[in-house]
């Protein structure tokens, strides 16, 4: 299967400009970047895609063995960028795609030259000396709920993940996005996401990295953002005023400005 068709790749902006790649989080698709990506089309080659199993990706390409770890998704990212002949790209990853980007950068040195990690978490489950925000029992319960009633879980959890209770339309959009995802694939991706442990990969990052941390993020709390920053050599941490886990939807202007400030030296 053609790589670009497999991941429903869309390219816009300046054909020979510096590449800026946006990767969505769990239960979402590239549409979640519609308020952010266009701001860079005048200066960058903007690349959007859907992870296999999400959006308009080729569902037939989903393979439980390939995607048994986040590494399978990282391999997809590398293949997409190589198919586009991209080098020195800036990879913007939201939520679980932050760690996918970390893995992809290590797999293909020179292909990804900068990382922007929005709401990253290298491990969601608390461990000795580490706070991930969830106990093992929390994650077990979450996955059990997904297995027994995915649509019910989506309706209950999406507004919590989004935050911004005073703006219910945002929570409704995320709920609808979750509900458009194939339940079987979503359950598999959730298990891979919430049981992953990529703490050891942070020290391998050798490219300039921006960590964007939201306020009141129930999925990736402030202590996790600080951990990521402290364990990625030379990274920059910016705490956004945006609340919740999806600033690309709830605070696109602030998110865009933070990315642009990070890119400015590289774009000149």
Low-confidence stretches: none
Q: Report the average pLDDT across residues.
A: 93
Number of contiguous helices: 10
Radius of gyration: 17 Å
As a percent range, the share of helical residues equals: 40-55%
- Strand pairing plus helix content: what structural class? alpha/beta
CATH class designation: Alpha Beta
What is the string of helix and strand elements?
Answer: HEEEHEHEHHHHEHEHH
- Number of DSSP strands? 7
Strand content: 15-25%
**First-residue to last-residue Cα separation:** 37 Å
Number of domains: 1
Major sheet characteristics: 7 strands, mixed
CATH topology: Rossmann fold
The CATH homologous superfamily corresponds to Alpha/Beta hydrolase fold, catalytic domain
Task: Report the CATH architecture.
Answer: 3-Layer(aba) Sandwich
Coarse shape: globular
Q: What is the gist of this entry?
A:
The chain is 41% helix and 15% strand. The protein is α/β, with parallel strands linked by helices and 268 residues long. The protein has a single domain (3-123, 198-267), classed as Alpha/Beta hydrolase fold, catalytic domain (Rossmann fold, 3-Layer(aba) Sandwich).
Question: What can you see in these coordinates?
Answer:
This protein has 268 residues and is α/β, with parallel strands linked by helices. The chain has a single domain, classed as Alpha/Beta hydrolase fold, catalytic domain (Rossmann fold), CATH 3.40.50. It is built from 10 helices and 7 strands. The protein has a 7-stranded mixed beta sheet with strand order 1-3-2-4-5-6-7, with helices on both faces. Helix 8 (222-231) links the parallel strand 6 and strand 7. Helix 4 (136-148) packs across helix 5. The protein is globular.
